[in-house]
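Example 3.2
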Amino acid sequence: MAATAEFEKFFDAWEAGDARRAGRVTNTPDQAEALITSVMTNLEPSKTEISAGAGERKADGEVDIPFTVKMTIPGAGDYSWNSQAKAVGRAEKWKVEFHTETVHPEMVPGQTLALELRDRAAILDKNGEELEAASLVGVVDFRTGRGVSGLQAFYDRQLIGSSGLSKSVVIRDRKSGHVVKTLTGAGASRGRPVRTTIDPRVQRAAAAALAGVEKNAAIVAIDPSSGRILAAANMPPGMNRALEGRYPPGSTFKVVTAAALLKQGMKPSDRADCPKFAIVNGQRFENQGQFTLPAGSTFRDTFARSCNTFFVNSGAKLSESTLHDTAKAFGIGGTWDVGTTTYDGSVPVAGSANDKAAATVGQARVQASPLVMASIAATVKEGVFKQPTLVPDAVKNRYVAPSRLDAGVVDALRGMMRATVTEGAAEALKGLPGEPHAKTGTAEFGTETPPRTHAWMIGYQGDRNLAWAVLLEDGGSGGSDAGPIAATFLKNVIG
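Structure, written as tokens:
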């Protein structure tokens, strides 16, 4: 039957997305081409199959045929519908009689099929308000409706809903753009919000402290009593270096080294020499600017003023695994179930005397994120490691450190971190209310001579549950460069 051949041409062309070819076999080529072009452009199916039933002659010169359209539509899943086509003609001259309803029986002239993004559930702060932290929240691809970074990607399925589909097929008025009817997903369950621990006031304080900073930078704040992450700010927004970044921590790691020495019996008041250089198997270590401390200086002095040479020389008292083992009490070495992607730090067993010497000052293979370093400060404040959490409802296996710091070690570390503020390298915080405790860090990286450095400062407030870390990539000195940012952050928090 000649009419059947025209149907086949029409369906084959439509299936292939060739609207012009499909239109040529109809009685209204321009109308057919325009509507099929609109539907295929709007739906962007990855696969289209059109199957026809048996034609039926309704009257002389008219043949009707039922057909089914099946499409696989990215974001909307599989969608199929049944329709009816009619051909009119005589002998070998037949045309498909085209109407809007031919494409979809629920459409009328002036309408088309389209996709509508479903509403995603929100990502919330601890107060239940929409979270304002771009690097944490991440980005949604508004073409596909899927999360592509941050919490939007990590919790994409939850935010979309149980169907896992981000779009609905709808009938839309072509002139106004208004949705006339929703064809798929109307009954699907809505997504569930993601509730975080972020304190909007602390988050704003961190973001404001980084405003205008021209280097890559991050601030993390934690509640030491619970491990809840109160703020995670990045400059520029985008990469979440606050939680995922991997950096040498430099002298901020001396908190761990000091804990190891204290556990072996050293006291803050013990004599601690701070020469200009320390030599380990021909490798020379020095203090920033090659400073020295006067004879009679104590362990507390070398910590507060961040004397590298004392800590490097003290490495001889430590076994190859001491720093690795001590770091466990600070949660390093475990896998943290935070509720999002994090880098949880690494302190390998030393492979040589030189490796161990560099590790005492947070170099060599020691790596940490700002989150890890904030957690180190929080552990000193609380006296025990509390695994950080960002999305409590998602945490299934909270990591528990296999060991804890002795009470005497904790007390000594607290006094030494306070001295770093009152008489040491963290003088940028001196005079601030709330008894800030801190440790500075200037971490070398790269192969240039002299080496480039990341600037660090970590600490906690003595009068409240707030521990924090500041990182300034390629930022110079911990005390003079990270310190003012930390001071601004604390002033913002204190108000």
